[in-house]
Amino acid sequence: MTKTLGLIGAGNIGSALARLAVAAGLDVVLSNSRGPETLTDLVAELGLRARAATPAEAAEAGDLVVATILLGAYEKLPAAELAGKTVIDTMNYYPDRFGPIAELDEGGPTGLTSSALVQRHLAASKVVKAFHNIDFVRLFTLARPVGAPDRSALPISGDDAAAKAEAAALLDVLGYDAVDIGTLADSWRSQPGTPVHVDPYFTAKPAQELSQEEMYGWYLRTPGTTVGIDQVRALADSAVHATPDHA
Ligand SMILES: NC(=O)c1ccc[n+]([C@@H]2O[C@H](COP(=O)([O-])OP(=O)(O)OC[C@H]3O[C@@H](n4cnc5c(N)ncnc54)[C@H](OP(=O)(O)O)[C@@H]3O)[C@@H](O)[C@H]2O)c1
Prior knowledge:
Layout: E1 4-8, H1 12-23, E2 27-31, H2 40-46, E3 50-52, H3 55-61, E4 64-67, H4 79-82, E5 86-89, H5 95-98, H6 102-106, H7 114-121, E6 126-129, H8 136-141, E7 153-158, H9 161-174, E8 177-180, H10 212-221, H11 229-237
Parallel strand pairs: 1-2, 1-4, 2-3, 4-5, 5-6, 7-8
Antiparallel strand pairs: 6-7
């Protein structure tokens, strides 16, 4: 059972997970690229269960570690300190926004998944993809305790059954049911552009045209929509590769 959650990345997703983890009674060790001293405010807000460290220290401290940086920096994840651990990968590939990664583009839509690439770098760790298909606001606001009628589910994928069970147990504690959609090679079924990615948790649209600032306020305030286990499975099953045949 996870007692200490290590976080490599303390931005939108990392801080949302840290808040959920502290609320669930876990200890968290947060890290970023600029150094622990830049996380003072967040650690103060999180309270006594939180501390800041370097990425290598967070990796060593975590019973389970979440890698939640931009995918382009995946080779900076501290492989030696993460060896032997389950690592949850929240990272998505957005070539248009953050630049292309040749190895992901070479194979085309049926090639290497981003999480398989991360697993290759973290060869001695067990990578599980999770928390990648929901935006950071809804990730926080849709979390519910076990048995709540409006509890949502999230897809997980990975190559190691025990690591997936560990990740599912973490999801459970943080407020989500887990739906196992297969291996890291299968994780394309939940990548950006697929039916289970972000939109289902976020169905409401603003009633009128908004300025950029108003839009952001709306984004922060608008409630999420419950997406249950059966719906997650059906959405993941319905994914098709964006090949020319299915474009
Ligand atoms: N935003 C969402 O709603 C959302 C939803 C699902 C999945 N995701 C995915 O989750 C990941 C994180 O997204 P985000 O929105 O949380 O990003 P973000 O707000 O930009 O935060 C990124 C974090 O990663 C840290 N970081 C960058 N390079 C690092 C390194 N080499 N070592 C340690 N930490 C490093 C940054 O620290 P510094 O600030 O010190 O550089 C920052 O704390 C992305 O891959 C994204 O695709 C995001």
